[in-house]
Specification:
alpha/beta; five-stranded mixed sheet; 16% strand; Solute-binding_3/MltF_N; signal; TAT_signal
Length: 348
């Protein structure tokens, strides 16, 4: 992070603001959202990866913040990102690492609140089409299912395969989504392995249809794969949008942190009652087993750790030569100012 140097004038201004904040808290009260109608793009909304978004929507937390949100669901995170870049979405509920990827292409987008503190992505090899699997190198020449090419599921697969000496062009990536389509793609033999999120991966794992070979559904598994904390789902948007719509961004962060607070104490029956029936993929027990596996991966307060941003940059640079760490300004890829205010508001 960049160091901030205070001269006398800025120090005096900061001191005056601090005093004003103590004397009159209403000065810092949140204003009305500049943009009350917000278009949100997401890639695979039914996945646990985006559960905080679903909770905020289902429990009316966006409305409580004065927002009328329209959520468009795409096959994967890369498609949701395209919606933002193309102008059909204001904000994306997606993987933090897209902020780094886009900065390497001179497009500045920024995370405003964190939903996931671990990627929740696991890689499984089909026990039917690759029965004699031993190492990741065995996947050379195989078809690997991902939510969508260019998404975070693709990133994790690239990272793992590169460590095994397998280049991205030595496998075929197939977009299969994150729900029923992903299940059928593996079961029908269209793909030999899959990098995906829950509940899909737990369902395949429990039925013995895949052998899990890498797992970031837990904090320990994430540490093992990435060597540090790895931020996952977040709300990100153009830096210009953040600057022009601070109250809207605060309202969005409030809604998400409110849902993170709810999730800290929610029981299995609370989850089942709240999420749409279609998300259960026809098996409540397996859905809840999946939730228990990923629960600790859900963020608690919306704040993105500085070390997590550094981990993400290291991971991306390790297999993508287009990303030069020395040219990435991590401080511009995220802000915690909205999450910190929301954390204080909801005591998250």
């Amino acid at each position: 992070m960049n160091r901030i140097v205070l001269n006398r004038r800025t120090f005096a201004s900061a001191a005056a603001l601090a005093v004003a904040g103590v004397a009159a808290p209403s000065v810092l009260a949140q204003g009305k959202p500049e943009k009350s109608k917000v278009a949100i793009a997401v890639g695979g909304k039914a996945a646990f990866y985006y559960l905080p978004l679903t909770i905020a929507e289902q429990l009316g937390y966006f409305k409580a913040e004065g927002l009328d949100v329209e959520i468009s669901d795409f096959a994967g995170g890369a498609k949701a990102l395209q919606a933002l870049i193309g102008g059909s979405a204001d904000v994306v509920s997606g993987a933090y690492e897209h902020t780094i990827n886009m900065q390497s292409k001179n497009q500045f987008i920024q995370s405003i609140v964190l939903m996931g503190r671990a990627p929740q992505i696991s890689v499984g090899v089909s026990t039917k089409t690759v029965p004699n699997y031993k190492t990741l190198a065995d996947l050379r020449g195989k078809k690997i299912g991902v939510s969508a090419p260019g998404s975070s599921t693709n990133m994790v697969a690239n990272l793992l395969l590169s460590r095994a000496g397998v280049k991205a062009n030595e496998v075929s990536y197939v977009g299969v989504g994150t729900s029923a389509g992903a299940l059928s793609a593996l079961r029908s033999g269209q793909i030999d392995a899959m990098s995906n999120t829950d509940p899909v991966m737990t369902m395949l794992e429990q039925k013995g249809e895949v052998k899990i070979v890498s797992d970031t559904r837990t904090l320990k598994g994430t540490q093992d794969v990435f060597g540090g904390p790895m931020p996952a789902a977040c709300f990100y948007t153009h830096v210009d949008f953040v600057q022009k719509n601070p109250n809207t961004c605060q309202a969005l962060a409030n809604a998400i942190v409110h849902s993170l607070k709810w999730l800290q104490t929610a029981g299995p029956s609370d989850i089942i009652k709240t999420v749409p029936e279609g998300y259960l993929l026809g098996d409540r027990a397996l859905y809840l087993a999946s939730f228990n596996k990923v629960r600790e991966a859900i963020a608690t307060d919306g704040v993105l750790p500085d070390e997590g941003a550094r981990t993400a940059l290291r991971a991306l640079a390790s297999f993508d030569p287009a990303i030069k760490p020395e040219k990435i300004n991590l401080a511009k890829t995220y802000t915690n100012e909205f999450a910190r205010r929301a954390k204080e508001k909801f005591k998250a």
